[in-house]
Amino acid sequence: MISSVRGEVLDICLDHAVVEVGGVGLAVHATPATLAGLRRGEQARLATTLLVREDSLTLFGFAAAAERELFELLQTVSGVGPRLAMATLAVLDPDTLRRALAEGDLATLTRIPGVGRKSAERLVVELRDKVAVAAPAAVAAVAGAAAAGDARRDQVVEALLGLGFSARPAEQAVEGALALSPDADPSALLRAALSQLGRR
């Protein structure tokens, strides 16, 4: 397993970054918060986990090993795959997620796209005793530079499609997010769209 990567950040997209390691550019899928902490042309180190399937190898990256552990822990629950685990970490920061699981906060958990009340209850039952609640994080993610409205819309829709959502709901969620925050950057729009999808 590839447990970490370190190298120059060649590119930052909406749902992944390209990190050069030993002359090879690796596509590392990450949450908006993790991507917001990266800068093109600068060195970065990410904790990673590699998903191996018959037809693909997918690398997921995290700002800290604790986030990677949560990503892997979420997938021990029946019905939770890598896309839902990434969507969970995109909507809820690690401290909020741990607290919601430990306290059985179903309202917070059902903000996650694709998680209804029964799924939230299953998450609590299976993970409550496996998470440690830490002090709230003090550092907020720094948003990237804003792009043009149409370009932002297309980027966010593409990212939602990559997370497994259908085109129509994804487009409606992005339109709703743009209506509420017309000047938001792509990362913030993705978070807002995910939140809207989670309420449906």
Automatic annotation (TrEMBL):
Coiled coil: none annotated. Residues 72-91, 107-126 form the Helix-hairpin-helix DNA-binding motif class domain. The RuvA-RuvB-RuvC complex processes Holliday junction (HJ) DNA during genetic recombination and DNA repair, while the RuvA-RuvB complex plays an important role in the rescue of blocked DNA replication forks via replication fork reversal (RFR). RuvA specifically binds to HJ cruciform DNA, conferring on it an open structure. The RuvB hexamer acts as an ATP-dependent pump, pulling dsDNA into and through the RuvAB complex. HJ branch migration allows RuvC to scan DNA until it finds its consensus sequence, where it cleaves and resolves the cruciform DNA. It is found in: Cytoplasm. Its main location: cytoplasm. Gene3D superfamilies: 5' to 3' exonuclease, C-terminal subdomain (1.10.150.20), DNA helicase RuvA subunit, C-terminal domain (1.10.8.10), Nucleic acid-binding proteins (2.40.50.140). One of its GO terms (molecular function) is hydrolase activity. Has three domains with a flexible linker between the domains II and III and assumes an 'L' shape. Domain III is highly mobile and contacts RuvB. Belongs to the RuvA family. Residues 148-200 are annotated as: Domain III. This is Holliday junction branch migration complex subunit RuvA. It comes from the Bacteria. Homotetramer. Forms an RuvA(8)-RuvB(12)-Holliday junction (HJ) complex. HJ DNA is sandwiched between 2 RuvA tetramers; dsDNA enters through RuvA and exits via RuvB. An RuvB hexamer assembles on each DNA strand where it exits the tetramer. Each RuvB hexamer is contacted by two RuvA subunits (via domain III) on 2 adjacent RuvB subunits; this complex drives branch migration. In the full resolvosome a probable DNA-RuvA(4)-RuvB(12)-RuvC(2) complex forms which resolves the HJ. Keywords: Cytoplasm, DNA damage, DNA recombination, DNA repair, DNA-binding, Hydrolase. The lineage of its organism: Bacteria, Bacillati, Actinomycetota, Actinomycetes, Pseudonocardiales.
